Amino acid sequence: MRIGELAALAGVTTRAVRHYHQLGLLPEPRRRANGYRVYGLRDAVELARIRRLSELGLSLEEVRDVLADDYGRELREVLGELDADLARQEADLRRRRQRLAALMAQRDLHPDDPVSPEMAALFTRIPAQAQGLLAKERQWLAMLDTAASPQVKDEIVAMLGPMADDPAFVQRVADVYAAMDEVSDPDDPRVARVARELLDLFPAGVLPGDGQEMLDSPFGAAFLADLTPGQAAIVRHAFQLLGERDTR
Predict the structure, then answer these.
(1) pLDDT top residue among 75 and 181
(2) According to the UniProt entry, where is the signal peptide (predicted)?
(3) What is 3-76's CATH number?
(4) Which has the least CB within 10 A, 61, 115, 127, 248?
């Protein structure tokens, strides 16, 4: 058989056959005097084996190891690992479909809603707004849910969860954020008052240190830049008051 006939018999392409030759998966027959390779039935058997194993999901490196083992011990081990990997993929697919079903069941769906189940549960207890500071807070939390480490995400949910379970506290947050939305000028006389109201939302010990290190970090700088000048002034003043509060 010529290479095209071999490939057609095994149901693969001639390019695949040449690739298997390069990888050492399929022995390359000697060329005859006319320069053509001639393949036999044994080559077709080996090529069919490569195809079957590949269709099971084995990598070509794994196929090579399996074919080198005449007694099938390597094949049993590789198939066991493949089965375990497929089981993990199936479990992951089930979880993802359950999450998709929960999202599609929502009446109003926002681009920030596809977050982890823990953060999604938190979102259901936080008022949703199309604009303003509450809307930005939702965006920030969605970003942290995606980018932060599992430990940081757990800490965020652990801190905000009990607060979100208190309807009176949630309303206080909404009121303070609404007041912050009204302040655009850093010289606005309301800055000091709203800063105190903002700080009162956080019990002692909840915020790390005096908060200045966090404000000076790249994330803190980006956070302040995302606020209006008036809101940024309120946050800075609140952290200043935090340092004074913790030194008493």
Answers:
(1) 181
(2) none
(3) 1.10.1660.10
(4) 248
Check if the beta carbon of residue 112 is closer than 8 Å to that of residue 103. no
Angle between helix axes 73-104 and 60-67 (nearest 10 degrees) is 150
Question: 53 is written with which tokens?
Answer: 């194993």
- What are 116's two structure tokens? 């982890």
H-helix segments, 57-149: 60-67, 73-104, 117-123, 133-147
Which tens digit of pLDDT belongs to each residue from 18-62? 999 999 999 998 888 888 889 999 999 999 999 999 998 889 998
Instruction: Provide the b/e sequence for 54-93 (b: ≥16 CB within 10 Å).
Output: bebebeeebbbebbeeeeeebbeebbeeeeeeeeeeeeee
CA–CA separation, 64 and 233 (whole Å): 65
What number of H helices and E strands is found in the chain?
13, 0
CA separation, residue 171 to residues 60, 64, 165, 204 (Å) = 60, 65, 11, 20
Residue-range domain boundaries for the chain? 3-76, 111-246
Cα pseudo-dihedral 28, 32, 34, 35, rounded to 10: 20
Q: How far apart are CA 212 and CA 240, in angstroms?
A: 8
pTM > 0.85: no
